[in-house]
Design the sequence.
């Protein structure tokens, strides 16, 4: 955070792009390795999808807000990109002997929507706090 404590410093903002890219590559790797090669966590598959896409959308929207401050409706772009990637992700999974599951895609979209909503609320509260002089 900067001296005012309201926004991350330049170094933190610059780190968002690489963090987003690494996170996204991690999702790709996790969903395109043969299932037998992956450890099975104690949570369900849909929960994994939900959490992964909530994180993806949170990082993406935060990155867009900081790198494209004049972009209106960054949240719409975030949801569209996450949904498109979720669809492509599911469609390409049979290539590595995994299953294309529409319910996984729905979990991706719901997770992306929640992650986007949380980031929107955080940024809105910051703006209101700054406008109020607090």
Sequence:
């Amino acid at each position: 955070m900067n001296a005012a404590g309201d926004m991350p410093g330049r170094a933190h903002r610059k780190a968002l792009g690489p963090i987003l890219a690494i996170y996204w590559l991690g999702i790709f790797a996790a969903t395109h390795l043969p299932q037998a090669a992956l450890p099975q966590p104690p949570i369900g598959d849909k929960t994994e999808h939900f959490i992964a896409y909530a994180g993806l959308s949170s990082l993406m929207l935060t990155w867009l807000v900081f790198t494209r401050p004049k972009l209106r409706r960054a949240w719409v772009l975030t949801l569209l990109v996450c949904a498109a990637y979720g669809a492509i992700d599911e469609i390409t999974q049979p290539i590595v002997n995994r299953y294309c599951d529409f319910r996984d895609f729905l979990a991706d979209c719901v997770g992306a929507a929640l992650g986007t909503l949380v980031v929107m609320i955080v940024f809105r509260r910051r703006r209101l706090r700054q406008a109020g002089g607090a």
Observations:
- Confidence is low (pLDDT under 50) at residues 1-5.
